[in-house]
Design goal:
With about 150 residues, this protein is mainly α. The protein is built from 8 helices and 2 strands. It has 2 domains: about 10-55, no CATH class; about 70-145, Winged helix-like DNA-binding domain superfamily/Winged helix DNA-binding domain (Arc Repressor Mutant, subunit A, Orthogonal Bundle), CATH 1.10.10.10.
């Protein structure tokens, strides 16, 4: 628990339960005798591709709330890669940045993510600081360009 910064077992249990519910991990008991004790438990951790396939197989939405259909997400490939690659964004900041890349207004982002417009502005200020930009247009350019010009492969 020292490595994660989680200070309570209940928090860890809720986190694990959430990952199991989202089909990101699976709990397995190891077979064998343990001298009358409960069998040890291990967690299988799945790759993103495996998680998506598992979610499709049981009929769950493939992508989290606030992100539209798969085709729309696939077109955001360059933006997703830059959001993930080392800008140290929180999960919510990443969602706001990707909504911004889709061309949504602050009000539309707030509605989609069920937060206030002021909260969206707060997240955008943090995103701008982390990307070293001052405007939404600069952020979008950073999300879709690699510094050598626009990425038209999408």
């Amino acid at each position: 628990m020292d490595l994660t910064g989680i200070s309570a077992y209940s928090t860890a249990r809720r986190g694990i339960a959430g990952l199991v519910g989202k089909l990101s991990i699976e709990r397995r008991k190891l077979a064998g005798q343990n001298g009358g004790h409960q069998p040890p438990v291990v967690y299988l951790v799945f790759t993103p591709e495996e998680i998506l396939a598992r979610r499709r197989a049981v009929g769950l939405p493939v992508y989290p709330k606030g992100v539209e259909g798969e085709q729309r997400v696939l077109s955001l490939g360059p933006a997703v890669k830059r959001v993930v690659d080392g800008h140290n964004l929180s999960r919510r900041e990443a969602q706001v940045a990707l909504c911004c890349a889709q061309g949504l207004t602050n009000a539309q982002i707030g509605s989609r993510l069920t937060v206030s417009e002021q909260t969206v502005k707060f997240h955008l200020r943090n995103i701008f600081a982390k990307f070293g930009v001052k405007r939404r247009a600069e952020l979008i350019a950073r999300l879709f360009c690699d510094g050598n010009g626009p990425d038209f492969s999408r």
